């Protein structure tokens, strides 16, 4: 069975801040966009009709996608245009993200609404005794800033592209939205839930924790199930990272309110959402000790270093990889199809580094082992200031031109992006 689906990118007015309307760029009038449901190894064709007044390019983040459907920044769908994106989904079950990737304008167009969750399922995942159906919930987390009348505040340079100087490190909002609602409250029963947390923020990092305290039991990373669960008292999440976690509310008495906090902030910004335990539920859930088999990557055939750093000589600050600003005609690496390479990332700041196509495992951080939150196969890794992060990346699936870039979306638009060619 092949999935064929049509979506229309169009303007919509949505009530986000109660009592106001916010005009957004949307997929099918929704923010976040409708959740895509894909079946592993079943090709899905997604038809995007662009009825906006700006060009778009849609990227399935974490997808193993042929280059012509990967949402390359200059592969634009013009206003009134249509494109069929083909997703073969030859990959494991995972929580992915789809979002706009228009050259120079990814940050404002995602900020204005072009963002949604995509879920790939397979038999292995479906057969695991994990919470299902209405106990399996995606949490699309992002921050935005609003004027009193509900309009979004984005400090774009006019004319664009880019942001005003003061926002060169990235744009942060002062309202936290989960599934498009500010600080929502979710009524739960006293049982276990699976939450697929996506940090869909342009630049904000989180450290998620529950209050009153309980563990976030991670079962999946960016691109699939872990081998075994990892328990976190608090869980750091950089932009574009996904964490598939189980929270068991059965330990809380009915009536308890549990806050999902961001411990990097205080006050309103220190809160993400609340869970209200309103009914008794099934107690005694345990996450299986063995979730999946996570293969070790083969031995690397090459090592390459990518340095993520601000340029110092610019009038307007630009961000660079190996000293270069993005050039669509240049390529920084030519890995061979079917091989594994060690890619080393160095940086001057927090840069969440993302590779298209290739999935990787984090093997070291500044000579030490990976962090607990680095477990499993990933497509995005948070490289912290002055850290040296090594990953083993597997270049599998398709030949062609793909990219690596910083997923702080303002950094991305300010040129912190590069091509690599899989040959
Ligand atoms: Cu989520 Cu190239 O992006
Ligand atoms: Cu960056």
TrEMBL record:
Residues 56-85 are annotated as: Disordered. Residues 15-124, 314-422 form the Plastocyanin-like domain. Signal peptide: none annotated. The keyword Glycosyltransferase does not apply. Keywords: Metal-binding, Oxidoreductase. It comes from the Bacteria. The keyword Cytoplasm does not apply. Gene3D superfamilies: Cupredoxins - blue copper proteins (2.60.40.420). Belongs to the multicopper oxidase family. This is Multicopper oxidase family protein. The lineage of its organism: Bacteria, Bacillati, Actinomycetota, Actinomycetes, Pseudonocardiales.
